[in-house]
Amino acid sequence: MTGRAVADSFQERVEEYLGRSGQRARGVRVVPLTGDASDRRYFRLISPEGQTMVLAAYPAAFDDSLPFLNVTRLLDQMPVPVPDILDEAPDLGLLLLEDLGDVTLQAHLGLASSEEHGKLYREAVRLIAALQHRGAQLASDIYLPYGIAFDEAKLGWEMEFFLKHYLLGYRGVELDEATLAAIRIELRLMVERLAAEPRVLCHRDYHSRNLMLHKQRLYLIDYQDARLGPDTYDLASLLRDSYVDLSDSTVNWLLAYFLALSGRPEAEAEFRERFDLMSLQRNLKALGTFGYQTTAKQNPVYIQYMPRTLRYVRNNLARYRAFGRLHDLLAAHVDELR
């Protein structure tokens, strides 16, 4: 299906929904919203009185097993704010959601004072602690996240994604078989360590673009891929965010804050090493995503976030002797890692 045909399909289904739900008769206006890297589309519905809602359009019809619906039912049982689901049209592939506005944590940080900046990040860390604590209490196979995990297969696939779409694809690096095999060995060692860690409930993409500031608090979005993984996974996404710079002192303080919230007896140095390992894997995966969006999807917007992500990778590779071999192998082909 061509891009134009896909757009027409979304528009036709939205128009059908507006008609049968009575929204069109009420004079509701429809404004397309900027999409993300997914195959979903979003539209804002604006009533004549100025009330707004968001219509999420999926590529096809769905049923009650739709991951977004399943995970929302789980998160609704926690003290974790998520958008309300106002209406469903499964046959049209549409969900009507509470409108959280347009202000992401990333967008707000440029306007926030240092005091408010710290307050918001403490709130974001508290939400991670709540996800993990309540997630353990609510564990059940009726919820999709408890049946999938960041295991060796998933984490390994992500590292292959980095190699294919960033190193070989975007950077155009040509590697002989021996060098490629050596890189894979180092990445596999990292993956094995991470996969062996005890697992908690993870949002899976917990960064400043997936936290909305609404009614003076943070709301989670884009959580449909939640799964089990290391307790450092969401922290790495938040504190080694490709879209935001945080000082080392801020990161250190927030990690200590998380440990205090969680009541962990673990030493900060040990936890920090696990956090850095998770951050390294997470940032390499992000580079793969950015490379894929740029080369395969012809979407260059993510190029601007590569330098910050590469800096995170370089710093972590240089910080630990165990990463020395991987550093040498990658830095030989990526100047920014030297």
TrEMBL record:
Keyword vocabulary terms for this entry: Kinase, Transferase
Pfam families in alphabetical order: APH
Domain Aminoglycoside phosphotransferase: 30-258
Tagged with keyword Endoplasmic reticulum: no
The keyword Transferase is annotated on this UniProt entry: yes
Molecular functions per Gene Ontology: kinase activity
Domain of life: Bacteria
Annotated InterPro entries: Aminoglycoside_PTrfase (IPR002575), Kinase-like_dom_sf (IPR011009)
Gene3D superfamilies for the chain: 3.90.1200.10, Phosphorylase Kinase, domain 1 (3.30.200.20)
Protein name as catalogued: Putative phosphotransferase related to Ser/Thr protein kinases
Species this protein is from: Luteitalea pratensis
